[in-house]
Amino acid sequence: MKKNVIAMAGVVCMAALLTACAGSGTKTATTAADQKEDTGKLVMVTNAEFPPYEYHDNNQIVGIDADIAKAIADKMGVELEIQDMAFDSLIPAVQSGKADFAAAGMTVNEDRKKNVEFTDTYAEAAQVIIVKEGSEVKTPDDLTGKKIGVQTGTTGDIYADDVENADIQRFNKGMEAVMSLSQGKIDAVIIDREPAKVFVKENEGLVILDEAFTEEEYAIAIKKGNTELLEKMNGAIKELKESGELKKIVDKYITAE
Ligand code: ARG
Question: What are phi and psi of 120, to 5 degrees?
Answer without folding.
Answer: -60, 150
